[in-house]
Write a structure and sequence with these properties.
The protein is mainly α. It is built from four helices and two strands; from the N terminus they run βααβαα. It has a two-stranded parallel sheet.
Length: 92
């Protein structure tokens, strides 16, 4: 998405499952790296959904600074990370 637009809010869903599996994801570090808001959520319980809506609305209103970093320059890194993540996903 960041290759197409800088108007992005990342919904970091399943944080409850990540925590349960002792997977640590730092939303602030991810937001700093991507240059866009990152909102941790748990869709099953609704945790974070209001903040996600608020962040999206602020972005649409222009009250959130747009400062995304291009991921095109990090193509090889992104591909490598996606490949690592894909290995952890069970295939049915």
């Amino acid at each position: 998405m960041l290759e197409v637009s800088d108007r992005v809010v990342v919904c970091l869903n399943l944080v409850d499952e990540a925590r349960r599996k002792r997977i640590v994801v730092d939303p602030q570090a991810l937001a700093a790296e991507l240059g866009v808001p990152v909102v941790p959520t748990t869709a099953r319980t609704g945790r974070g959904i209001e903040e996600l809506i608020r962040s999206s609305a602020e972005l649409c209103r222009g009250t959130t600074p747009r400062r995304s970093r291009s991921v095109a320059a990090k193509g090889a890194t992104v591909v490598a990370i996606v490949a690592l993540i894909a290995k952890t996903i069970p295939h049915h």
